[in-house]
Amino acid sequence: MEPAIAIMQPYFFPYIGYFQLINAVNKFVFYDDVNFIKRGWINRNKILINNQSNYFTIPCKDVSQNKLINQIGHALNDRSREKLLKKVSLSYRNAPFFNSVFPIIEKVVRFKSNLISDLAIESVETTCNYLKLHTSFEISSKKYNNRDLDRADRLIDICNIEGIKHYINPESGKTLYEKSYFSKRGITLSFLKTGDVRYKQFQNDFIQRLSIIDVMMFNSPEEIRANLLPDFKLI
After folding, report:
1. Residue 114 near residue 73, CB atoms below 8 Å
2. DSSP class per residue in 22-41
3. 27, 136, 176, 212: most buried by Cβ count inside 10 Å?
4. 68-115 pLDDT, tens per residue?
5. What are the percentages of helix, strand and coil residues in the chain, rounded to 5?
6. Residue 74, by phi and psi: left (phi above 0), alpha (psi -120 to 50) or beta?
7. What predicted TM-score, i.e. pTM, was given to this entire model?
8. Alpha carbon distance 12, 230 (integer Å)
9. Taking a C-beta distance cutoff of 8 angstroms, is the pair 64, 39 a contact?
């Protein structure tokens, strides 16, 4: 297989498709110097609460879509940290892998940084360590210095800097990027389409597209690597 690269905004404990993308590439770039998206996935996701899908959110300060992700501070304090951890604990304390997974969440929530980008990156890297994924990471603001380029050209520039000619984007990127534009510039563009990922939760009907927190609470790292991460196709 030829080397591949993915470039994505840092999300806080994102859904499994994000980790499928990480596992499908050799290098993953946290795209932290693009505009913050309000009500997106940078500072929130969904977990299972009383057999329903519910948001958990990291509060942020002075949120603006005119600011870069790495310019946005979070507003967690001791009280809100404990409230968030209690919410997760009450929701999953009877899950089969709670004792292994809850310390991961606790470590991330208590991570010493005032920036939501750092907290999100820590959540992804800590999860990858737990799952024993070996993709290497870069942070865009610390390496590439190409914010003057247009959207697609920035991605192509990062590919060229890394010397990687296969760029993989989530399926949602089909509305933003054209394969022909990348191909004319020497880059193969593929889109990752997540399969119908399912696993046993509690006694409820399966609820999809929750945070990786939910996935880890009900599946061992070995099961996730063998059965869930490969459940995608490139289109």
Report:
1. yes
2. HHH-SEEEE--SSB--TTSS
3. 212
4. 999 999 999 999 999 999 999 999 999 999 999 999 999 999 999 999
5. 40, 20, 40
6. beta
7. 0.97
8. 22
9. no
